[in-house]
Amino acid sequence: MTKADRNIGIVLIMIAVIMLYQALTLEHPHFNRDPGPVLMPVIYSISLIICSLGLLFWPRIAENKKESKTQQSKEQYRKNTTKMVGLFLFLVFYVWSFKTLGFILSTIIFLGGSILFLAKKRERKFIIISILTSILCTGFIYYIFKIQLKIQLPVGVFF
Amino acid sequence: MDILISSFLDVFSPISFLLLLGGIGIGIIFGSIPGLTATMGVALLLPVTFGLGPVAGILLLVGVYVGGISGGLVAATLLGIPGTPSSIATTFDAYPMSKNGEPVRAMGIGIVASLIGGIFSFIILITISPFIARIAVKMGPSEYVALIFLALTLIAVLSSGNMIKGITSGIIGMSLALIGFAPIDGTARYTFGQLQLTAGIDLLPLIMGLFAITQIHMEIQKGEISKEINLKVKGFAVSIKELLNNTINLLRSSSIGVALGMLPGMGSGASNLIAYAQAKQASKNPEKFGKGAPEGIYASESANNASVGGALVPMMTLGIPGDSVTAILLGGFMIHGIQPGPLLFTNNAGIVNVVFIGFFLSIIIVFILQFLGMRLFPKILTIPQHFLYPILLTMTVVGAFAMNHRIFDVWIMLIFGVVGFILIKNNYPIAPLILGFVLGPMFEIYLRRAFMAASNPIEILYSPVAVILITAAIVILIVTTVREVKDVRKKRKTTPPNINI
């Protein structure tokens, strides 16, 4: 197991202990011959503790350096990771903004912003295409879901 | 004979046939878009059928159902995102094959396997369905516990290569399914006082997070690596020799699909994973699974399409829906004044024929539509990442929200996006997690029912069927563990050990 596996093992042991504690202190009705709602939580939490111990104490191996053989340099990999984290944070902001901006505005901002954020070149023509794409896509999704399929979309203060 | 001819004429009347076509088209779209499922498609179109006659209405719903299950193939193959839970296992090998520059071949295999699985289940549906349904209904909690236990042992099969990580993943899945009201007594577990958690975690946000969010972010981290896509392939991109080599795999997977489709709660979501695990277990090259092995695609796609026919068996013959989508279909039948059950075949033979003909036509039309689009769909891969991924992310957010109209589900999806990323980066297989999540709740329900019905726990083993199934599960566990130990020893012999601390 790698160092990361051991860290995962520690986190899982903590979760399993909380699970076990909650199961053992759970108040529940008792039916004749029914093992009750605590049986499976106890079994799973003990199994999870055993597996986590396996992750912790299985012989440690050196970190696999295979990733470095990919076609990109470390610098490029770091840049891509930054992009990935940035996009995820943008996605979190997008979901959070539904409450205030509503579906239409937040989707236009998310789509336009993330297209520009992920693109390598941002010329004037590309910026216009990105904005148009985000407006058209949002309109299309809204039309199909809200108007045609009558599926509710997130509603905010504005739309 | 007159009834059969009259049913044919009903189905092929212009309006009915057009509605069937439209239903299939809508179903394929619902299946292809991450977050939209066949269940949602059938539920949304159910009110549309109110104004139609029984034949036209039922054909529309059957078309959406078959199209929805089959449509998942497109997104699973080209984007690595299961459009529906029925195509989760398809992503394991179809997407790697697609990434290796063979998207058309991956699609071709999926389309042919879907056709074979569909026709297999159709044959079962029209021939021995009442007989099988009667057996299925006789299964008690003990038999169900044993069957689900057998299915759960497949977690070990899916984990081969790193059993500790796989089993950990499976237990995480089963533990996640504990959140919410417990079955039977309704005790709230692990809700931490949150009202939203009382309903538990929905399967859709979970798979959207683990697959779509994780996959998209991992692709962005890898960067845009342009790979030549082979779009010039002949016919179905599948050779007769390859098909013949997969005959047993196809028959086994289709049988699993039909059998699980008939059992309440299992359906296409579990059948594709179980058929995949079985194909891996039986394969001479299990190490190739997950890297673009055709056997994996044959297994998953034939099983999920076969489960559609399987799910129709208890619904038609006994009036018992096997899953949520057949429950909605059953509602649709009843709205049109048709009562599925043992008397349906004698009292309303015409409608039975309409369903059978509609189901068969749907399989064939889906096949033709997907074949026509086989060379067109992979063009999605030529769309630049910076346009494709934001649009896909938006669709997953909309899909996760649309399921229950709750932002909470979208947050759950994002959390599992992060969890999936950590797990995949550290080589934890995701398939056992999903299998554990799907089967865990059913295992608990039937185990508790079996205990309640028995005067002592050993009584569960009084059923010969349960004993056979549990024995099979133990054999699978032993074989898989022995194989795993052998592999570890072989690896240790052939490669010098890494730094052991």
Strand content of chain A: under 5%
Strand content of chain B: under 5%
Order of SSEs of chain B, N→C?
A: HHHHHHHHHEEHHHHHHHHHHHH
Q: What topology, given as strand order, has the largest sheet of chain B? A: 1-2
Largest interface, with Cβ-Cβ < 8 Å?
Answer: A-B, 72 and 63 residues
Task: Count helical runs of chain B.
Answer: 21
Instruction: Kindly provide the radius of gyration of chain A, computed on alpha-carbon positions and rounded to a whole number of angstroms.
Output: 24 Å
Structural class of chain B: mainly alpha
- Poorly predicted runs of chain A are none
Tally the beta strands of chain B: 2
Number of domains of chain B: 1
Mean pLDDT of chain B: 84
Radius of gyration of chain B: 22 Å
The string of secondary-structure elements of chain A, in order, is HHHH
Largest sheet of chain A: none
Determine the mean pLDDT of chain A. 88
Which ranges of chain B are low-confidence, i.e. pLDDT below 50, for 5 or more consecutive residues? Answer: 497-501
Largest sheet: number of strands, sense, barrel closure of chain B: 2 strands, antiparallel
3D structure, described in words:
The complex is a heterodimer of chains A (159) and B (501). Chain A is 70% helix and 0% strand. Chain A is mainly α. In chain A, helix 1 runs antiparallel to helix 2 and helix 3 packs across helix 4. Chain A has two domains: 3-62; 75-148. Chain A has helices at residues 3-24, 39-57, 74-118, 124-148. With 501 residues, chain B is mostly helical. Helix content of chain B is 72%, strand content 1%. A two-stranded antiparallel ribbon of chain B has the order 1-2. The longest helix of chain B is centred in the C-terminal third of the chain and has 31 residues, at 464-494. The model of chain B is unreliable at 497-501 (pLDDT under 50). The interface between A and B is large, with 72 and 63 residues.
